């Protein structure tokens, strides 16, 4: 259960950033290279790569290097975790259970 | 009384909490404690009313991003069994008055476990026809905002 919650945490953190959401939107149209993805953003490549790594770590995208070009693609399966309203409600209740557990074990030990 | 969960409309979650049942019960039923965990930080929860008796109110407000407190949950307790079970619904408000906008009943059960307390929540929802409302309600929980953005994104792109 904790793992499910952690997984959601990472996904939602990945989605909480406008750059990362823009990258996902772009990848929704099909795979793209890092340099194509980075072009619209006014930021240094290392900063942009941090976003890519975060997205890859969350499982929302995968990357593949061929020659000197690294290509990113969306990982549809991971989106299934959060795409329905019931999953959204589940995230709410999993979060509550996690916080209750944390609160009780940290504050109420006698 | 307790029917098996409907996979399309219900969700269940459970935890083994390494603390006595009385401590878990207190965290749920003491307003000040409840406010500490009910919503994810940085949002803040304020309990406006918590009358732990069948027909009693469970009313909370929420403040997001340090803004004003706005209504969050307006629900009614259906059963409150000391140290064992809490049932509440937002299909009714205090005094069993039918509610305008509502979609769920939650059954919280606590039982003893060798490691402490077995905590379980069984949440039953209205039919999927109300999905839009669910998404709107979810907004206030922080998660929902992002989930809705994501749902939108997924719908746009697939």
Account of the protein in words:
The complex is a heterodimer of chains A (110) and B (158). With 110 residues, chain A is α+β, with helices and mostly antiparallel strands. Chain A contains 6 helices and 3 strands; from the N terminus they run ααβααββαα. Chain A has a 3-stranded antiparallel beta sheet. In chain A, β2 and β3 form a beta hairpin. In chain A, α1 runs antiparallel to α4 and α1 crosses α6. By secondary structure, chain B is α+β, with helices and mostly antiparallel strands. Chain B has a single domain, classed as START domain (Alpha-D-Glucose-1,6-Bisphosphate, Chain A, domain 4). Chain B is globular, with a radius of gyration of 16 Å. Chains A and B meet through α1, α2 and α6 of A and β1, α1, α2, β9 and α3 of B.
In short, what is this structure?
Chain A has 110 residues and is α+β, with helices and mostly antiparallel strands. Chain A has helices spanning 2-15, 18-28, 34-38, 45-58, 76-79, 85-107, and strands at 32-33, 61-66, 69-74. Mean pLDDT of chain B is 80; it is low at 131-158.
What does the secondary structure layout of this molecule look like, with pairings?
The complex is a heterodimer of chains A (110) and B (158).
Chain A: H1 2-15, H2 18-28, E1 32-33, H3 34-38, H4 45-58, E2 61-66, E3 69-74, H5 76-79, H6 85-107
Antiparallel strand pairs in A: 1-3, 2-3
Helix pairs in contact in A: 1-4, 1-6
Chain B: E1 10-17, H1 21-29, H2 31-37, E2 44-50, E3 57-63, E4 70-81, E5 85-89, E6 92-93, E7 97-98, E8 104-113, E9 116-125, H3 131-139, H4 143-157
Antiparallel strand pairs in B: 1-9, 2-3, 3-4, 4-5, 5-8, 6-7, 8-9
């Amino acid at each position: 259960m904790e793992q499910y919650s952690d997984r959601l945490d990472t996904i939602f953190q990945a989605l909480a950033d406008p750059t990362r959401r823009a990258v996902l939107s772009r990848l929704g149209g099909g795979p793209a290279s890092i340099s194509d993805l980075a072009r619209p953003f006014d930021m240094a490549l290392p900063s942009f790569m941090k976003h890519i790594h975060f997205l890859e770590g969350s499982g929302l995208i995968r990357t593949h290097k061929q020659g000197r070009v690294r290509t990113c693609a969306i990982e549809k399966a991971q989106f299934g975790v959060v795409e329905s309203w019931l999953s959204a409600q589940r995230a709410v209740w999993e979060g509550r259970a996690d916080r209750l557990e944390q609160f009780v074990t940290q504050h109420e030990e006698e | 009384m307790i029917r098996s969960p409907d996979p399309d409309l219900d969700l269940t979650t459970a935890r083994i909490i390494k603390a006595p049942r009385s401590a878990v019960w207190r965290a749920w039923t003491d307003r000040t404690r409840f406010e500490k965990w009910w919503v994810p930080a940085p949002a803040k929860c304020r309990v406006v009313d918590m009358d732990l008796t069948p027909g009693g109110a469970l009313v909370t407000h929420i403040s997001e991003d340090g803004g004003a407190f706005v209504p969050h949950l307006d629900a009614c307790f259906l059963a409150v069994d000391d140290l064992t079970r809490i049932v509440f619904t937002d299909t009714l408000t205090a005094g069993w008055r039918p509610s305008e906008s509502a979609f769920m009943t939650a059954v919280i059960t606590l039982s003893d476990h060798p490691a402490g307390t077995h905590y379980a929540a069984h949440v039953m929802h209205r039919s999927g026809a109300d999905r839009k409302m669910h998404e709107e309600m979810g907004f206030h929980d922080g998660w929902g905002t992002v989930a809705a953005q994501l749902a939108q994104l997924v719908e746009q792109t697939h």
